[in-house]
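Translate structure to sequence.
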């Protein structure tokens, strides 16, 4: 009887932690100046808010998987520190899902 409430609570918390994105636009953002970056994957180290004439913009500081570091300005607030992302050749930042990364040698 005493075990039922904690078990129910832990089950609800576990289910609440699972998220499903049905709209792909929730997993990506557009790079504002697409010519100033190199495509590749990395991890978000920090996020800053940029005040501008056209609304809020966000600066992502990325530690790239190839050992480099770069910053990109994006138009979306959907990213958090520590998330794995990929910078695509067409000027998007896409959230990477999964548990393993392939690191080229």
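Result:
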């Amino acid at each position: 009887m005493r075990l039922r409430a904690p078990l129910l609570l832990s089950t609800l918390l576990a289910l609440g932690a699972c998220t499903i994105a049905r709209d792909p636009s929730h997993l990506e953002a557009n790079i504002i100046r697409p010519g100033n970056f190199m495509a590749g994957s990395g991890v978000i180290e920090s996020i800053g808010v940029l005040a501008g004439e056209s609304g809020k913009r966000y600066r992502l500081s990325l530690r790239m998987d190839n050992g480099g570091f770069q910053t990109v300005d994006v138009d979306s607030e959907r990213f958090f520190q520590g998330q794995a992302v990929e910078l695509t050749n067409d000027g998007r930042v896409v959230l990477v899902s999964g548990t393993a990364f392939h690191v080229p040698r």
